[in-house]
Fold:
Amino acid sequence: MPRIIVDVMPKPEILDPQGKAIARELPQIGIDGFAGVRQGKRFELTVEGEVTEAHLAEARRAGEELLSNPVIEDVVDVSVVED
Structure:
């Protein structure tokens, strides 16, 4: 079944303490070369049958109205994954 992925990230002006903690710990496990980390959320919405433009529009609406907090988060991507 195809899935629609909705990615949500904190707005750029919002502090991301989890991302900062991850960024501090990366060098401790031997991973270097990253200037920063931002942590977000990923939602997977399963669709029966073929994904339509209407499905994508509804997934974006769900992301903007339910899956994210629009005061501090943005929906940054809505995409389809075929299995």
Remarks:
- Residues 10 and 69 are 9 Å apart (CA to CA).
- The first strand starts at residue 3 and ends at 10.
- Helices lie at 17-25, 53-67.
- Strands lie at 3-10, 41-46, 73-81.
